[in-house]
Design goal:
Elements (H helix, E strand, L loop, with lengths): L12 H29 L10 H17 L2 H4 L7 H26 L7 H33 L10 H27 L9 H10 L5 H24 L7 H11 L13 H7 L12 H9 L5 H5 L11 H14 L3 H5 L1 H5 L6 H5 L6 H14 L6 H12 L30 E4 L2 H5 L1 H16 L4 E2 L10 H6 L2 H18 L3 E4 L2 H10 L8 E4 H10 L13 E3 L3 H5 L5 H7 L32 H10 L5 E4 L2 H14 L5 E4 H8 L2
Parallel strand pairs: 1-2, 1-3, 3-4, 5-6, 6-7
């Protein structure tokens, strides 16, 4: 006999119709509940429409990378339960595809469910069912452990255990139904489904009318569990099975470091800046709130949360979702304290499996608070200084050229020809530590034969701190000013030692007319080393560790160039895209920080723990923050130095 199986074994037409009716009813209940969520999303701002070919390409790419390949989950920390999640996902996906293929065979004129295909189908389905159940049991144990840990970033409720119970029941009753079918209608090829076959052997062959009734009872038991599963999906976090697919697939490709600009036309139309109510977010952002599984990966990596602050990215998402459901203002739901604690390091965004843009959400609410005058203290002073002097620390324009004295630095205004604009930045021009880096970069560019020039007093702050604090139009003012200067001097290529300046110039200035090729100094210096124009540093083995700046290693995906310049480094536990934030981003550089809640202290402890006596850097903000923190966490003599300075030593 050809290996296959009959669907609806021993079922009459009325029984089949009852099944179809209950299936339609349970699916109807599910979609009716989902429709109420869709109506909430529709209150948001329309998402920008794009040509269908581009959208289709993005959908296919996102589904492949983030759903099928589970990129974000696979790259998570081991403590995030990634293997458990993958077991549940791939097990469930396999069983779903198996059911779908069975349905296609049953209701289409094309019949393929027999022979070798059937045997392979049965074996794979059976094995992956075990993987699925193992993942569910693992999840139950993990949830139980997390529920007993008050410091866990993941929230666990009784509903979560109910959901896992339903998933477990789906798998177990599915195996029981398979075993019942084999017991009531046995075949030699049943061994192709090892679990179901073993179960059927244990319960024996079923013969007679009573056994058929027993088989049908098991069949209906499994069906009822499936119906219940359909109806409960929208009510529990497990709805992310559907919504995560929609969110990730429909996510518009956008650089992590780019914030969406606000137009003056939008301000005139809405009579506000930023987000006050949840409906002021885009429809995609509102949908992403419902896709959240509350897995806590975002909170687990948050630098503020990890040093005891109240900011909890997972809770921010839930608070905004509550505001969406109740029509409340967003800021009071989250709390101003939490909103201002964000460093915009994007660790939460990088970790989120469903691509929620926590930083965008927070900055949009900040924009509204700033527009209503709800920012005070040193951060507000920084904004006033940037507006009046073009310098985040309030230095006068001419001070930007003090570091150049005696160095013969070419200036754009002198009419010199140049290939690269050396963008110095506010810190690079005035902070004592950062000036060392600036001088080293200028020296190396000369030695490497690079034609460059600086703007000097014509350079103004990029506006990055202002934008991330929420002062959008101050940022736009500075961007317009700088873009005008670029146009005047024909600037096409830029090199900078500041990752924050790099990010704004590279990823955000394009929205304001700039067309630039922007390099971090490590990238350009690495090119000079690779072609023999400069020598790489040769530190002692185990003597140097490198601290990846968030806006370089994570936001702009550059971690190789610095290491190519330094040779062998001792890696801290968190490095490259998984680096730990120093706490300076998002305007936090200019805000007071409790001594026991400094992300820079946590990072300093990890860097010191490597045993290296030299910490190489690639960001002036990180240098400022870590300089004081290293002195607080150790009495050892630790050298803090930019990688350009190390390279300068090697080429002196």
């Amino acid at each position: 006999m050809t290996p296959t199986r009959e669907e609806f074994l021993y079922f009459s037409l009325p029984e089949k119709l009852l099944f179809y009716g209950l299936t339609a009813l349970s699916l109807g209940v599910m979609f009716a509940q989902l429709w109420t969520r869709v109506q909430l999303w529709q209150t948001g701002k329309p998402t920008e429409t794009r040509p269908w070919p581009a959208m289709l390409k993005d959908w296919i790419t996102n589904l492949s990378v983030y759903v099928l390949a589970q990129k974000k989950v696979r790259s998570s920390r081991p403590t995030s339960g990634a293997p458990m999640h993958l077991a549940i996902f791939y097990g469930f996906l396999t069983l779903f595809l198996a059911t779908t293929l069975l349905g296609i065979n049953t209701y289409s004129p094309i019949k393929f469910h027999y022979g070798t295909y059937y045997l392979v189908y049965e074996w794979i389905s059976d094995v992956m069912g075990v993987v699925f159940l193992a993942g569910v049991v693992w999840a139950f144990g993990r949830r139980l452990t997390m529920a007993r840990n008050p410091k866990s970033p993941m929230v666990t409720t009784s509903a979560d255990f109910q959901t896992l119970g339903v998933l477990f029941a789906l798998g177990v009753t599915g195996y029981w139904l398979e075993a019942a079918r084999m017991s009531v209608n046995p075949h030699n090829f049943d061994v192709s489904a090892p679990v179901g076959h073993l179960w059927s052997q244990l319960q024996g062959n079923w013969q007679g009318t009573n056994q058929v009734i027993l088989y049908k009872s098991v069949w209906w038991l499994h069906a009822v569990v499936v119906f219940g599963f359909f109806m409960m999906i929208p009510q529990m976090r497990i709805r992310h099975i559907l919504l995560a697919i929609l969110t990730t697939a429909s996510a518009t490709p956008r650089l992590m470091g780019r914030l969406e600009p606000i137009s003056m036309e939008e301000v005139v139309r809405t009579e506000q800046i930023g987000v006050k109510l949840a409906k002021d977010f885009s429809r995609w952002n509102l949908m992403s709130l419902d896709a959240c599984m509350e897995c806590g990966r975002c909170t687990e990596v948050c630098p503020a949360w990890n040093v005891g602050k109240v900011l909890n990215p997972r809770q921010v998402v839930q608070d905004i979702k509550a505001a969406m459901e109740q029509g409340d203002e967003v800021a009071p739901r989250i709390s101003a304290e939490a909103l201002w604690q964000c460093t915009t390091c994007n660790a939460c965004v990088e970790a989120c499996p469903v691509l929620i843009r926590h930083v965008d959400l927070i900055v949009d609410v900040r924009r509204n608070l700033v527009s209503e005058g709800q920012l005070s203290g040193s951060a507000a002073t920084m904004l006033r200084q940037t507006a009046s002097t073009g310098h985040a620390w309030g230095a006068a324009r001419n001070v930007r050229e003090d570091w150049m004295k005696g160095l013969d630095i070419p200036l754009c205004r002198d009419g010199v020809a140049f290939d690269f604009l050396f963008w110095v930045g506010c810190a690079g021009a005035t902070d004592p530590g950062a000036i060392k880096t600036t001088k080293a970069v200028a020296d190396l560019l000369k030695k490497g034969g690079v034609s460059f020039a600086c703007l000097g007093q014509e350079e103004a702050c990029t506006g990055d701190p202002a934008r991330r604090l929420g002062e959008e139009f101050l940022f736009q003012e500075k961007a317009a000013e700088n873009v005008s200067v670029f146009a005047r001097y024909g600037v096409k290529k830029v090199v900078t030692a500041c990752p924050h300046c790099l990010n704004s110039l590279k990823n955000e200035y394009g929205d304001f007319g700039a067309n630039l090729e922007v390099f971090h100094h490590s990238q350009l210096l690495q090119q000079l080393v690779s072609r023999g124009s400069l020598l790489a540093a040769t530190p002692q083995r185990g003597g140097v560790t490198f601290h990846d700046p968030c806006y370089l290693g994570r936001v702009n995906s550059e971690s190789d160039a610095p290491r190519a310049l330094l040779g062998e480094v001792v890696e801290p536990i968190h490095h490259s895209a998984k680096t730990l934030c120093c706490g300076a981003g998002g305007g936090r550089m200019w805000m007071d920080e409790p001594a026991d809640q400094r992300p820079s202290n946590r990072r300093a402890q990890e860097l010191v723990a490597t045993g290296a006596k030299t910490v190489a850097l690639g960001c002036p903000f990180c240098r400022i923050m870590l300089d004081s923190s290293i002195k607080q966490v150790t009495t050892d003599e630790i050298r803090l130095v930019d990688l350009a300075e190390m390279l300068q030593e090697a080429n002196s």
